Amino acid sequence: MNEKVISVHNLVKKFGNFIANDHLSFEVYQGEIFGFLGANGAGKTTAIRILSGLSRPTSGKVMVAGFDALKQPEQIKKNIGYMCQRFSLYEDLTVKENIMLYGGIYGMKKQLIRERTKSLLVRLRFEEFGDRLIASLPLGLKQKLAFSVAVLHEPKIVFLDEPTGGVDPITRRQFWEMIYETAARGITVFVTTHYMDEAEYCDRVSIMDEGKIEALDTPAELKKKYQAGSIEEVFIRIARHGKK
Amino acid sequence: MTASNIVTVDHLTKSFGKVKALQDISFATTKGEIFGFIGPDGSGKTTLFRIITTLLLPDQGQVTVLGLDCVKGFRELRRHIGYMPGRFSLYMDLTVEENLNFYATVFGTTINDNYELIADIYSHIEPFKNRPAGKLSGGMKQKLALSCALIHKPELLVLDEPTTGVDAVSRAEFWEMLKKLRKYNITILVSTPYMDEAMQCDKVALIQEGKLLSVDQPEKITDGFSRKLFSIKASEKYHLIMALREFPLINTAYPFGDSVHVTFRDDRYDDSLLTFLQTKGITGVTIDQTRAGIEDRFLELMTP
């Protein structure tokens, strides 16, 4: 379990004079659930775009799934999964068509896509929904399906950008159980959330403020260090301090 | 209705085609209350708010706001309601000050007339008053939208998910601002998908699939939790949950932060639980009785 799947060393990203990421250094391991927290505008999205091969670092060394974010972003894209709250699946395609499409994009063989589709639908107890349009499904089912599709090609890492926004508490928990199960299979889960209680579901958590990582540890250690009862308290202390 | 009720909703129903957005909703709010609607996306919060703000017509039922029927009295009512929709709906190409001025003018007032009311909130963004609204950060947009909703000194303020997608610090600040409005005796209806914000309200309605599951003071809602609740921790969370679900005496087991919240069929457990977990290879187990929160109660109400 000690293989590094993400290794970031002195990552800097500038937009003109604005420093969005200011010398970030951290590592994420195989099978880990890593919570990436920060206030709005702290630089999380910029960092995630670099880690997922969508943007290049200004300086520093970023390795993701064994590939260099500066020189091999296309290789990174093939070895990760990505899901965000706003865009997940094509509403006017059916469940099966969406799975086909994503499998195809990831270059999977048709036979393999068919096998995975079948097992995925069984696992989600989704068999009777295969031919339904995404638009007709409730939000909770869509989110669970979107997550399953994001790991269809068994990537080394899956990035989840606020995956549980707006879903009911039962669905939210089912979603986290899917995350646990995925991590137990050895896939690293890199997740952002505004639900501070969800931060406590993570193995380790980093908290960004004004482009820097101000804290990184297990939730238990962070609470101990900041003498706080919850990660929310830790977060507010760090982010408020930065505002002054 | 009693004289002090600001909003009275009586057996309200609203459908869109086959979708029953609101089913037989009834509640009342009194003056000066912060009344929170807590529920997931699609539960009917926005539809309810649109009916109360006279932007949608009810199918059935009676909605009375500030003593006026929300269908017949809509013209008069609109002058006394401040509404902040879920989607940012100010003019992106107008400056901060122009937006505020525009809203003041539409309601026949001026910024100066009611400055006192918004001073606490607006002072944060006043240094940027010449900046187009589209160029503000999320937190600043939220403050401007709230200022615009307040500028005509409404008696009722309706806020549709003002804190969604906003970080924990800005959310805490936003609630502080709402609480400061108490001294002006403005009644506030606010919706949120964040369960933890329920405790900030005077009264809370839990809403799911167009139905109200519970309406009460937040402490009373949590007191309504009908079972003994236990918080169980172990080093391997995922395996702990899976194992607990196999334990014969278990009623429910839900992950909650760094622990698992558990209820037992007979509200108690014995040594067989620890032995059982041991045989499943789970170590470092601690079990404590704990107080139910809003989310525990919501889960209980969702699964009768």
Please sum up the structure shown.
In chain A, 37% of the residues lie in helices and 27% in strands.
- Taking all residues together, what is the mean pLDDT of chain B? 93
Shape of chain A: globular
Number of helices of chain B: 10
Structural class of chain B: alpha/beta
β-strand amount of chain A: 25-35%
- Summarize the amount of helix of chain B as a percent range: 25-40%
Proportion of helical residues of chain A: 25-40%
> Kindly, what is the distance between the CA atoms of the first and last residues of chain A, rounded to a whole number of angstroms?
40 Å
Spatial order of the strands forming the largest sheet of chain B: 6-7-8-3-9-10
What is the rounded Rg of chain A? 18 Å
Unreliable spans of chain B are: none
Shape of chain B: elongated
As residue ranges, the low-confidence spans of chain A are: none
The SS-based structural class of chain A is alpha/beta
Mean pLDDT of chain A, rounded to whole units?
A: 92
Taking strands numbered 1, 2, ... along the chain, how are they ordered across the largest sheet of chain A? 6-7-8-3-9-10
The biggest chain-chain interface is: A-B, 38 and 35 residues
Number of helices of chain A: 9
The largest sheet of chain B, given as strand count, sense and whether it forms a barrel, is:
6 strands, mixed
Order of helices and strands of chain A: EEEHEEHEHHHEHEHEEHH
